[in-house]
Amino acid sequence: MKKIINRASDVVTEMLDGLAHVHSDLVHRVEGFDIIARNAEKTGKVGLISGGGSGHEPSHAGFVGQGMLSAAVCGAVFTSPTPDQVFQAIKEADEGAGVFMVIKNYSGDVMNFEMAQDMAEMEGIQVASVIVDDDIAVEDSLYTQGRRGVADTILVHKILGEAARSGQSLEEIKTLADKLGKNIHTVGLALSGATVPEVGKPGFVLADDEIEFGIGIHSEPGYRREKMRTSKELVTKLTDSFQAKTGDKFCILINGMGATPLMEQYIFANDVASLLQEKGLEISYKKLGNYMTSLDMAGLSLTLIKLEEDSWQAALESPVTTIAW
To answer: What's this model's pTM, rounded to 2 decimal places?
Structure first.
């Protein structure tokens, strides 16, 4: 294992210190906690938090700022943050109108965020949440009951962040979040597994001519292993997983898993555009880059959000002040 680190046990705290130092104009680290919070003054609106295990950078701290998250709580690598860390993030985000939590569907995340919600409500802070479960590749895994939450989480941050900034109530944001969840799907693939620093070896190993479909963001293996294919063939296999009809209007997110060059992501994007055009689908918003990564995994994911309402696209297009959007 070759990593630019000091001690494997210190990677999260040193990463957060470095992030807060470099981006001190936008965010700060909450003293004594693995939390990144925005510097913006509180204005009495709903606060928005998210988080989970580290190793998915720039998620989630990279999306803290005006127009998106109020705070992000960062657990150990691929490990849920503890309830007390989440509770502190809720208190940091609270502006008096309640706090909304975006939770990826992993057992530890769901349990610990819900425990923190109970703690917050005992102190009089209203809290609501949505569980993101956009991964259509695997219905159940070692970490979930049902579908996993993956790159869609970023689009949820963006749309709900705009709702909070515009002054929507906690109840209105909850209704919006539930509606979004029914309209977003993601599926991914990997050319290599991710190496957790404290483990020192990849979560799974592929031969030079192999590819894995349906992988998770914690280096969970997927549903099928095949011989390597061309970009066009990979696009066909992934888009066949989505159910869409001619005339549907979509946003697409092509997300790098951490070690896939932008050159390859753009080649893949070109093939996605061609195939979706052939299918008669309207792509009205596009985004590409490393947003929900898995350490040093080589691979990518494709997310489609069916834009049922024009306001969703407007929310995606609205300007924000964050590190990574």
So the answer is: 0.95
